[in-house]
Amino acid sequence: MEGSLLSGLNSGVVLSLIAVLWTVVWQNLQHLQLQQFFGRHLSRHARRLAAMVDPYLSVTIAEYEGGRMKRSDAFEEVKAYLSDACSRGVRHLRAEGAKDADKLVLSMVDGEEVSDEFEGATVWWWAYSKSPPRNDGAAAWWSGGGAAQEERRFYRLFFLERHRELVLDTYLPRVRQLGRAVMVKNRQRKLFTNISTHQWSDGGYMRSAWSHVVFEHPKTFATLAMDPAEKKKIMDDLDMFKKGKEYYARVGKAWKRGYLLYGPPGTGKSAMIAAMANYLDYDIYDIELTSVHSNTDLRKLFIETTSKSIIVIEDIDCSLDLTGARKKKKKSAAAEEGDKDKKNAPAAAGEKKDTSSKVTLSGLLNFIDGLWSACGGERIIVFTTNHVEKLDPALIRRGRMDKHIEMSYCGFEAFKFLAKTYLDVDEHEQFEAVGELLREVEMTPADVAENLTPKSLEDGPDSCLAALVKALEEAKEKKASGGKGLDEQDEEEDEEEE
Ligand SMILES: Nc1ncnc2c1ncn2[C@@H]1O[C@H](COP(=O)(O)OP(=O)(O)OP(=O)(O)O)[C@@H](O)[C@H]1O
Ligand SMILES: [Mg+2]
């Protein structure tokens, strides 16, 4: 038996055996510890040996595409697909939270391998990671600090040469498709914000990176008090956007839309953003502009956002010097732009730790509708402000901020909505009095809602509405006496001048 096996091996096969063994050993010595090689991967090598008469091919899918600029969709899809497939045959798993609070999404840890069957063919997936190359200046610049030091993860798919077409043309597209379906099933929406990092070089450059928590805001359009007709218009607009992929492609516009929400504090601008995200089922990227160190940094943050997301810059008038004063300086600032951008480039080795934001108006305009803004698609950009009149017109012109929505003081329609939501009443004898008072005094929906909130278990619609009428009458008296209201206005004006 032994003799017949040996005689069956001709010298060509022996040579291929040595070559395959050498390649396997060499590859693994490069990426893995020797111990890992003899431990975890014996099964893989046994499989490779078995495949030597019919050589295997491999496809590698990296976590990041284009150096470290953008997370690969394919990687995420494969990861999601394998999370379903791998829990069967893998011994060491990584767990992450899922949409359902009791469940976990499982994926392979590095070094693990799982086999999969498809139309009679067997394929093998192997998860591994590599340390980033040292002193990779350009990559580190793009990656923006700490992220560059993280390990780069990969999935490598092995399959026999005779299954090449089946795997490349049918299996892989199917994996991506199923992976996307798993992602939708497990998806937890996220609320991202940018934080400063300064870890990657001796020079201590400050860069921004996204950090996130699970987004769980309860506000929906069903609980947002505003004129029903206006609300319907906004919801229709969002529907059009979400289903507008073909439309945007046909008219040659990047698939994104800008919303400017403006109005006094407490009128529901932030609440509206939460309602939009819940309605569209999008993630939110809340950018703190003062923590963005340069235009390049801002662009990098943008590239890292995923599609199906709302990018928010709250209180845009406070975040940057984009006000009227800025406008006067516009010419000279524009002249400086080029210089600033150059300073922010990686070549600016002289730049030391600098925590101040160098984002400029032109950097922000570029962010909204420059060439980079089109990458990825399906993004909504929202700016909020209490002082729309102070913003540079270039920033909010149609095309950049396509839809301007005024969030205003509480009107009678919004009040009726709040009364229904908070007290479950459609009609009440106090409604008329409230309606009249709301025409005379300005009260934000936030204040009306607070007055309608029961303060004890005994409180019902009668006492809450009475409390609201009382608060409105007090506000009316203050307004009539002119005292405090005007003082407040003066104070605000002083602050603005400062
Ligand atoms: N139109 C509204 N309908 C329902 N609730 C509202 C509305 N407006 C405000 N609120 C409630 O009032 C509170 C404050 O609202 P929000 O934070 O959205 O105001 P804002 O306009 O973002 O204020 P600011 O300009 O200070 O950021 C929230 O709890 C919100 O739920
Ligand atoms: Mg707000």
From TrEMBL:
Catalytic reaction list: ATP + H2O = ADP + phosphate + H(+)
Domain AAA+ ATPase, residue spans: 255-411
Annotated TM spans: 6-26
InterPro entries: AAA+_ATPase, AAA_N_dom, At3g28540-like_C, ATPase_AAA_core, ATPase_AAA_CS, Mitochondrial_chaperone_BCS1, P-loop_NTPase
Biased composition (Acidic residues): 488-498
Chain residue ranges for the region called Disordered: 331-352, 476-498
Keyword Transferase attached: no
Basic and acidic residues bias (residue ranges): 333-352
A Pfam match: AAA_assoc
Alphabetical keyword list: ATP-binding, Magnesium, Membrane, Nucleotide-binding, Transmembrane, Transmembrane helix
GO molecular function, one term: ATP hydrolysis activity
Superkingdom classification of source: Eukaryota
Keyword Membrane assigned: yes
Signal sequence bounds: none
GO biological process: response to stress
Cofactor: Mg(2+)
Family per similarity comment: Belongs to the AAA ATPase family. BCS1 subfamily.
Name of the protein this chain belongs to: AAA+ ATPase domain-containing protein
